[in-house]
């Protein structure tokens, strides 16, 4: 059973006249007759019966037509979905990203300009983003620029932001505007779990300052980390984010070492990138 047989059958069932249906289908009448006969032979039932010079569907033909029309409709929908999927104006775009006002603002700007794209957005840690790129769950990722073992993941830096020590307004350190990181070696830190870019950076900066941070809480959500900071449970290292209520938190500049995070856009090398994904990459300011 072939696609054109079903289309010919649908056309003949609608017009109920061989010569007119053949003209509509742009084939000869004998070719149409052979196609229908072959279909009937395969199904082992008659689909049409003649009434004078016209034809009409048999009860078998009526049952089969219902299924054929549904099947052809589903195929047309599938073709349209594939067309939309590969259309940069109407495609699908899956983006995974670390917590960043820059990234959120960038996605919002792109979404405003291309509102018909179907977006799937996921916020998680850098290692989780790499896994999503490897599995194909995400088309594009925004990660903290940390060493990545998978050489098939291409990463290009797009943005740099300073990191600050964040404490509660009631914390003893809140009186300072700037500090050396080494002066915090006895403080309690609350931060992300291993695998998050900010955790890797914090550990690296503390090592540069000559100590291992005393981590007493590890979380996956910024909200839970900030909840610990707000109660004075510990301090953390993070960018200046819009979600940081400056009446509750104090941001302290780190003088030495200079704490900065580079965010990179990542995608899987040699894998298919949809037109929507390519358009998004080209949308990023250089």
UniProtKB/TrEMBL annotation:
Keyword Lipid biosynthesis: no
Domain HTH lysR-type: 1-58
InterPro entries named in the record: HTH-type_LysR_regulators, LysR_HTH_N, LysR_subst-bd, WH-like_DNA-bd_sf, WH_DNA-bd_sf
SUPFAM superfamilies: Periplasmic binding protein-like II, Winged helix' DNA-binding domain
Domain of life: Bacteria
Keyword Lipoprotein: no
GO-annotated cellular components: cytosol
GO molecular function, one term: DNA binding
Record's keyword terms, sorted: DNA-binding, Transcription, Transcription regulation
Family: Belongs to the LysR transcriptional regulatory family.
Protein's UniProt name: HTH-type transcriptional regulator GltC
Organism in which the protein naturally occurs: Priestia megaterium Q3
């Amino acid at each position: 059973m072939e696609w054109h047989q079903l289309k010919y059958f649908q056309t003949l069932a609608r017009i109920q006249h061989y010569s007119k249906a053949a003209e509509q289908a742009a084939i000869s009448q004998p070719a149409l007759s052979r196609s229908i006969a072959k279909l009937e032979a395969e199904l082992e039932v008659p689909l049409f019966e003649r009434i004078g010079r016209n034809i009409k569907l048999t009860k078998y033909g009526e049952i089969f037509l219902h299924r054929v029309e549904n099947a052809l409709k589903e195929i047309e929908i599938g073709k349209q979905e594939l067309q939309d999927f590969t259309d940069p104006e109407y495609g699908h775009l899956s983006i995974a990203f670390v917590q960043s006002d820059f990234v959120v603002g960038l996605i919002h700007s792109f979404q405003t300009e291309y509102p018909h794209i179907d977006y799937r957005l996921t916020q998680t840690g850098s290692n989780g983003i790499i896994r999503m790129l490897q599995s194909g769950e995400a088309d594009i990722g925004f990660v903290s620029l940390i060493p990545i073992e998978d050489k098939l993941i291409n990463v290009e830096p797009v943005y740099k932001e300073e990191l600050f020590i964040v404490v509660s307004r009631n914390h003893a350190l809140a009186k300072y505007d700037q500090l050396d990181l080494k002066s915090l070696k006895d403080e309690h830190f609350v931060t992300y779990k291993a695998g998050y870019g900010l955790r890797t950076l914090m550990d690296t900066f503390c090592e540069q300052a000559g100590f291992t941070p005393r981590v007493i809480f590890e979380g996956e959500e910024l909200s839970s980390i900030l909840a610990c900071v707000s109660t004075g449970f510990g301090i953390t290292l993070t960018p200046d984010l819009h979600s940081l209520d400056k009446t509750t938190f104090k941001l302290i500049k780190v003088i030495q070492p200079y704490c900065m995070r580079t965010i990179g856009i990542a995608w899987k090398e040699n894998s298919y990138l949809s037109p929507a994904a390519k358009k998004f990459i080209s949308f990023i300011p250089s």
